[in-house]
Write a structure and sequence with these properties.
about 90 residues; alpha+beta; five-stranded antiparallel sheet; 5 strands; about 20% helix; about 30% strand; globular
Length: about 90
Amino acid sequence: MQDVPPDGHEHAPVPTTPPAPGTLMVDTGHDNRVGEFRGVAGPYWALRPACGGQEWEAEPEHVRLADPIERLHAQNARCNARSRGDVL
């Protein structure tokens, strides 16, 4: 039997190599923040909120691919921010 995280949802695996820029990721080391992968910054991965904002650095071992629900939530939040004029 496969282990299921405490929240009851199975999540995407932790990537071993940097993903393509723009890939939605979850930083489990920072309260499960969702952000777009921007690039590698030394030993860290740079992520940026999907709705815009300041990038942050995450330790790669604490970053995983966003699952479908997390991607949908982030995309919806971005559309809402765009309609308010917060994001281009």
